[in-house]
Design brief:
By secondary structure, the chain is of the alpha/beta class. The chain has twelve helices and ten strands. InterPro entries: DUF1835, DUF3658.
């Protein structure tokens, strides 16, 4: 039996289709996006509490409906780790070149027992740079790559574990992945891009910009790296609090409000 670990439900679904009914392989997915929020070692006793408490403080009412699912995934992960410690089996981790999967790769390695053999399948490398996320691959592509994972050398494994522990010690709330490296960044790292895109869309619309349109433009056109839409919305609300953006509607659901840049008149009011 080999356990295939992927990041995100979409990637897990595609990989399960690719696996078919093969009895020798199972798919386990990690849901928590460690790009943002307090970094915590997944083996620590308060891992779930720290991560979920933070999400509760930044999410709107709509996003908080996702938290029970996230908690369930975390609990399933801890239960699996307990079984793995008692009965080690080989593990294949699917991790493309993006911040979600690369932070996840490091955190997973840090949580695994040292006697578990690990291989890594990078779909960005396998697709010659075409795919930025495992979830972007079609099931038939994933099926063609099953069995091609590279065994992780002990030195590389230790380097990745230490890299995650460095990020935990830095205790930042945002991590970015560039030029093959992860680093802690200031929370405001994407704010300038958010404001620039809002300004452009506002000029085109000659008024309010729907949040769904704004986030989509940021994620799929303005940025060359896949990041969490929930982080972008969190920063939008912070820009509203700072008076850089103003809004109309309700902030409790993404589809219920629109924004535009504040003017001196808005600030005075």
């Amino acid at each position: 039996m080999t356990v295939q670990i992927v990041f995100g439900a979409a990637a897990a679904g595609c990989l399960k289709v690719a696996m078919g009914t093969r009895p020798d392989k199972s798919v386990l997915h990690w849901e928590d996006d460690l790009m943002s929020g307090p970094p915590v070692c997944a083996a620590s006793q308060n891992w779930e509490d720290v991560r979920l408490r933070w999400r509760e403080t930044i999410d709107n009412e709509e996003a908080r409906q996702y938290l029970p699912y996230l908690k369930s995934n975390m609990e399933a992960w801890r239960e699996w780790l307990s079984r793995l410690s008692a009965n080690p089996v080989p593990v294949v981790i699917w991790a493309a070149d993006n911040v979600f999967e690369q932070t996840g790769l490091r955190a997973v390695l840090d949580s695994l027992p040292p006697d578990v053999s690990v291989s890594v399948m990078n779909v960005t490398v396998a697709s010659e740079g075409r795919l930025r996320h495992t979830g972007e691959a079609a099931p038939d592509e994933l099926a063609s790559w099953i069995g091609n994972a590279e065994p992780l050398a002990p030195r590389t494994r230790e380097r990745l574990i230490q890299d995650w522990r460095r990020l935990v010690e830095e205790a930042g709330l945002l991590r970015i992945y560039e030029n093959g490296n992860l680093r802690t960044a200031d929370e405001s790292y994407f704010d300038e891009t958010i404001v620039q895109v809002a300004r452009t869309l506002q000029a085109e619309a000659q008024g309010w910009v729907k949040i769904g349109l704004l986030i989509g433009e940021i994620l799929f056109h303005a940025l060359d790296c896949p990041i969490s839409h929930s982080w972008i919305e969190y920063r939008l609300r912070r820009l509203i609090e700072r008076g850089i953006l103003i809004y109309t509607g309700s902030l409790e659901a993404m589809h219920d409000y629109a924004v535009k840049l504040a003017t001196s008149t808005d600030s005075a009011g």
